[in-house]
Write a structure and sequence with these properties.
Blueprint (H helix, E strand, L loop, with lengths): L1 H10 L3 H14 L4 H13 L3 H14 L4 H13 L3 H14 L4 H14 L2 H14 L4 H13 L3 H14 L4 H14 L2 H14 L4 H20 L3 H14 L3 H14 L3 H14 L4 H13 L3 H9 L8 H13 L5
Helix pairs in contact: 1-2, 2-3, 3-4, 4-5, 5-6, 6-7, 7-8, 7-9, 8-9, 9-10, 9-11, 10-11, 11-12, 11-13, 12-13, 13-14, 14-15, 15-16, 16-17, 17-18, 17-19, 18-19
């Protein structure tokens, strides 16, 4: 009865209740390795990797050939940061089942965390070569390629994933993140829009969309496409995910068009959210320079950490000092 109840709770994601039932079952019969494995599996999903590791190892003491216990033992070691032991155990996984793609992917992740990018790429290529059609393999492989800054490879892998599963918002967002990291902001914008249309509750998709709007607006502004940039920033304001950045950038666009009043309005809106943000303080100082309130601008800019200053801010500071007749 306890085992069956454990299974029911497990299937309905009630992990605490499932763990309690499996433990009661083991109190009655401690030799049930299958229940030990089930308990360890729930503990793994609950991210109690230390307890799960002990359970998987205990399972293998009874059944050394238990592949699931071997694989998850290795992954527990990886999650606990025990990279050397994890690597050895995943190598045992591949000895037990040659060509197992998750083994290659996990070894790629370990190599990446060890700083061995060449080895990580070697494992990644083996994984995608053997099983390019498996969605989970493509998803993880693309993420690892992105972490290796191999953006073209990440885009290629995740593009395959999206072409095969176009109705999955998560995969659209993965491809959007690749394009965002690669600086392909228009493509990123399109992918994140597609992801939000598929899943309006996807936090990752909305965050990515907001970032893509901000970055693409900056690119357009650099090309003097100010009205298009302003339209995108307006959309970013409506999303209200990065409101300060959006408002500050709108203010900067307004100043480029000598619309000081609009810039001041955007500044006040940004100050309501984060009055001490470096971007807000830099913008406020810029407006003080324009208003010829040089001493106030100097005071505001000198209060910033040098790392928070931009080239434009240093220029504003120089202008303020120059007009204050302080040439030092």
């Amino acid at each position: 009865a306890h085992i069956n109840l454990g299974h029911v709770h497990f299937s309905e994601d009630r992990f605490d209740e499932s763990i309690a039932e499996y433990r009661r079952a083991l109190e009655i019969d401690s030799k049930r390795y299958d229940v030990t494995y089930d308990l360890a599996s729930v503990q793994y999903l609950s991210k109690d990797y230390t307890s799960a590791l002990a359970g998987f190892r205990k399972t293998r003491e009874v059944r050394s050939e238990h592949f699931g216990a071997l694989y998850f033992e290795a992954d527990c070691l990886l999650q606990l940061g025990q990279l050397s032991e994890a690597k050895t155990t995943f190598e045992q996984v591949l000895e037990s089942r040659p060509g197992y793609t998750y083994g290659f992917l996990k070894l790629a992740e370990i190599s990446l965390r060890e700083g061995n990018e060449d080895k990580a790429l070697e494992w990644l290529r083996k994984s995608t070569k053997l099983e390019t059609s498996h969605r989970d393999v493509l998803a993880l492989a693309g993420i690892l390629y992105r972490r290796l800054r191999r953006f073209d490879d990440a885009i290629e892998v995740h593009s395959k994933l999206v072409s095969r599963h176009p109705d999955v918002a998560q995969y659209q967002a993965l491809l959007g993140s690749d394009h965002l990291a690669a600086g392909n902001y228009e493509s990123a914008l399109n992918q994140f829009r597609a992801a939000t249309e598929l899943d309006a509750l996807s936090h990752v998709a909305w965050q990515g969309l907001s970032m893509a709007l901000l970055h693409y607006a900056s690119v357009l502004a650099e090309k003097d496409k100010l009205s298009e940039a302003e339209e995108l920033l307006g959309q970013a304001v409506e999303l209200d995910i990065h409101p300060v950045e959006a408002r500050v950038n709108l203010a900067i666009l307004a100043l480029r068009q000598d619309r000081t009043k609009d810039a001041s309005a955007h500044l006040e809106a940004a100050k309501l959210v984060a009055p001490d943000s470096p971007g807000v303080l830099r913008l406020e100082a810029r407006l003080k320079v324009i208003a010829k309130r040089y001493s106030e601008a100097i005071q505001a800019l000198n209060a910033l950490d040098p790392a928070e200053m931009t080239g434009a801010s240093w220029h504003d500071l120089a202008v303020a000092y120059g007009n204050s007749k302080d040439w030092e």
